[in-house]
Amino acid sequence: MASGSSRNIGAIVLFGPPGAGKGTQAKRISSYFGAPQISTGDILRESFRHGSELGIEAHSYMSRGELAPDSLVCRLVQQRLRQPDCQRGFILDGFPRTPSQAGWLDALLEDKIFENLRPGAALPIVIQIDVDYTELLRRLTGRRTCPSCGRIYNVYLQPPRVDELCDVDGSKLVIRNDDREDVITARLKAYDQQTRPVATYYRSKGKLYLVNGERPVDQVTRDIFAIIIHPPDTRTIPWGL
Ligand code: AMP
């Protein structure tokens, strides 16, 4: 996708269940608007690979499909957001996942640790990607990842050209540890019980924008870009429909 805009997009949160397409969309926003994608799942996996204490602690939760403790994840996010590349905005993918993380993020943004956020935009723009449960299961069980470049495939929906090999670099694709069926069920349950209330939190602040994530990827991207460029007035959106 062509690089677009040097605008300051502020804090963007991509919200939705595992398998909704947050990672795919976050990468597109990142390359178009030139703002970093901050995936807490990726940061935790990376920390584990490097053998850091936080990574090792988080790993036991991740392998069961449970959420890592708020304090641990918030500490990692804080470290990441203080990096200079976040000054013009950033895309959070997989954070916040509990109302307490959302409250923590709001307080951090209010603190004005960022110099150039959109004027008057302390609160993030939260874009919820909605996908039906059965479709989520299909996406998660079919998901394969390239261990070298991180590209994501799906054996049912978006298979590689050559079976089990990455189109870009030919690496053998892998199933993420937490994409096993028992772990997937636990992750979806954690979303329902602990993460869904985050949507209510942001809706009450007029900052939640809903996107139908079951349409082709490009259409979802188009909707998301439109929201980022001109966030509609949420008071005119009929949430009950
Ligand atoms: P993801 O790659 O976003 O699906 O995240 C993988 C796993 O990392 C989750 O199932 C959780 O165990 C952990 N994780 C990622 N982000 C968070 C978060 N914001 N809060 C708690 N745990 C998280």
**How far from one another are the termini?**
33 Å
- CATH architecture assignment name of the domain at 35-127: 3-Layer(aba) Sandwich
Helix proportion range: 40-55%
Individual helix count:
8
**Rounded radius of gyration (Å):** 17 Å
Task: Kindly report the average pLDDT value.
Answer: 89
Bound molecule kinds, no repeats: adenosine monophosphate
For the biggest sheet, the summary is:
5 strands, parallel
Form type? globular
Uncertain spans: 235-241
- From the 3D structure, determine the CATH topology of the domain at 35-127: Rossmann fold
Oligomer, anyone?
Answer: single chain
Name of the CATH class of the domain at 35-127: Alpha Beta
Q: Beta-strand percentage?
A: 5-15%
Return the string of H and E elements.
EHEHHHEHEHEEHEH
Descriptive account of the structure:
Helices cover 43% and strands 13% of the residues. It is α/β, with parallel strands linked by helices and 241 residues long. Among the domains are: 35-127, Rossmann fold (3-Layer(aba) Sandwich), CATH 3.40.50.300; 133-203, no CATH class. Helix 1 (22-33) crosses helix 8 and helix 2 (40-49) crosses helix 3 (53-64). The longest helix is centred in the last third of the chain and has 24 residues, at 181-204. The model is unreliable at 235-241 (pLDDT under 50). Bound molecules: adenosine monophosphate. Adenosine monophosphate is lined by residues 18, 40-41, 44, 61-62, 65-68, 73, 94-95, 97, 101, 178, 187.
